[in-house]
Specification:
Number of strands: 2
Strand content: under 5%
CATH topology: Four Helix Bundle (Hemerythrin (Met), subunit A)
Distance between the termini: 109 Å
Largest sheet: 2 strands, parallel
Helix content: over 70%
Strand order of the largest sheet: 1-2
Shape: globular
Length: 236
Amino acid sequence: MTTNTPVITNRIATVPNAISALRLAMVPVFIYLVIQHRDVWAITLMALSGVTDWLDGFAARRLRQYSRLGQLLDPAADRLFILSTVFLLGWRTIIPWWLVASLAAREAIMGITLLVLKFKGINPPAVVFVGKAATFALMYAFPLLLLAEQASWVKDAAWVLGWAFAIWGLLLYWFACGVYLVESYRALVLVRGPQRRATGKPKLVSVPAPVADAVTPTPVPDAAAGAGRMAGSAEA
C-alpha cells in the first residue's frame, strides 16, 4: 500500500539541496554586483534565483527527495537573498527605510521563534503556501524596482509593478509570520503538556479526618433497683 506522505530523510546529496546551495552561493555575487552598480547583471542573477527557488521545490516533489537539510537550506537562501536585497536597495535609496525596517523586524521575530523551537527540541514549522507567495512577490518586486532606476522605456511600468509586488509581498510576509507563530505556539503547548505532567509537583490530596471510635457508655446502675437488691439480701 503506497502513501503520499513525504518521508523526511537525513540525506545531504540530493538534487533539491544542490539547487538550494547554488542559490545560497549567489548571494555574495549579487551583493557585489549591486554595490558596483552593475544592475543589469544583478537583475539577471535575481531572476535566476527566483527560478531556482521554484525549481528546488519542484525537484523535491518530482523526485520525492525530502531532507532535513533541505528544510533548512531553502528558507535560509530565501531570507538571505531578501534581506541582502532589502538592505542594499535601502542603502542606494531605491526603497524607503520603513520598508527595510518592516521586513527586518519580521525576520528578527522569526529568528527568535526558530531559536526557541530549537531550544525546546521542536522542528521548525513547515513552509506554508502564503509564505512562498510572499517570497515570490518580493523576489519580483526588487528586480522591478531596480529596473526602474534604469533610463529605459520600461522605467515607469517597472516602478508601478515593482511597488505593487512590494506592498502585496510585505502584507503576505507578515501574514505568513502570523501563521508560523500560531503553529509554533501550538507545538510548544503540545510539548509542554506532557512535560508538565511528568515533572510537575504532585497534587495535594485532602485526606478526610478519621472518625472517632464510638465509645460505649458505661451503664449507670439504677438507684431503686440497687435498693431492692439490698432488701432482698437482708430478708434472706
